[in-house]
Amino acid sequence: MTTLSQQLELLKQQQEELEKRIQEEKEHKKKLNNEASIERLEALVEPITRNLDYETSNDMYKRKEYTIQYECSMNNYNNSITNYPNGRHGAPPKKRDELEKEEIYVTLIGILKKQDERIKELEKKLG
């Protein structure tokens, strides 16, 4: 009897998880269908952010790993300039494309949100 009740409980848990995922997917699709909105931009950037926040095999998030790599490259570049000021150093190191794009998108979304808030405040004052 306990195995049947345990199985029933497990099935209920799985059902709740599925319902939650279905609801999240519906909300995601709804945001994507709203063609010109901040929510749509957030929904488009979300997979990039999720991927960067994914844990890699060495228990480190991709975002942190990429940031550390960039900082090391930048330190090496700066040391090269300091030690050999008249040498050819090339272009400074660049962040990984995925990290750089995500930072740009998140920054732009933040700016748009602030502007949207200001517009709403002005609309309240005017009308």
List keywords for this structure.
127 residues; mainly alpha; 4 helices; 0% strand; single chain
Secondary-structure map:
Blueprint: H1 2-33, H2 38-52, H3 62-83, H4 97-126
Brief overview:
The chain has 127 residues and is mostly helical. The protein has helices spanning 2-33, 38-52, 62-83, 97-126. Helix 1 packs across helix 2.
Shape label: flat
Structural category: mainly alpha
**Gyration radius over CA:** 23 Å
Parts with pLDDT < 50 across at least 5 consecutive residues: none
**Averaged pLDDT, please?**
87
Largest sheet: none
How many runs of DSSP E, i.e. beta strands? 0
Helix content: over 70%
How large a portion of the residues is in β-strands, by DSSP E?
Answer: under 5%
Could you tell me how far the N terminus lies from the C terminus, measured between alpha carbons in angstroms? 66 Å
